Amino acid sequence: MAGQNGGARPGAGRKKTSDRNAGAVVKAEKKIRDRLPEVIDALFELAIGVTVEEVDGEGARTVYTKAPDAKAAIYLTDRIMGKPTERTENETDATVVIHVKRDRADYPEPAPGADGDPSQPEDV
User: Fold this and answer.
1) In degrees rounded to 5, what are phi and psi of residue 65?
2) Are 88 and 76 in contact (CB under 8 A)?
């Protein structure tokens, strides 16, 4: 390779995860797509709750109710109405320093003490 000393080269480096998993993702999407009506029905049953009747091998009936699942209801609502904005708060003891670069011709340096800092002597 004459003339190339370092830098990025086509095809070099670690492959993206999306490229490595492309086949598995396509298979999973197909599997979900094929059973989507069943999945949605099951999700509605979770969200609303359902009464279940089971008969064991001896013919004994058991009837019970599955309580509504709040997370399933929230998921369905978010899919239709959009997920509401979540507020987050962060607490930190870090000090933030901001450096501003300015053109000296437009903004001359302030005189010592002119910025109100009592530790700087003011020219008299």
Assistant:
1) -115, 130
2) no
Helical segments of the chain, H only: 17-20, 22-34, 36-48, 70-81
Higher pLDDT, 98 or 48: 48
Contact (Cβ atoms closer than 8 angstroms) between residue 63 and residue 53: yes
Indicate the number of domains in the chain. 1
pLDDT at 118 over 80: no
Q: Is residue 50 part of a domain?
A: yes
Q: What are phi and psi of 70, to 5 degrees?
A: -60, -40
Residue 34 lies in a domain: yes
**What are 63's strand-pairing partners?**
53
Spacing of C-alpha 31 from chain mean position? 25
The CB density around residue 42, as the number of other CB atoms within 10 Å, is 13
Residue 57 inside a domain? The answer is yes
For residue 20, what are its two tokens?
């490595």
Total residue length of the chain = 124
pTM above 0.70, yes or no: no
Residue 74 lies in a domain: yes
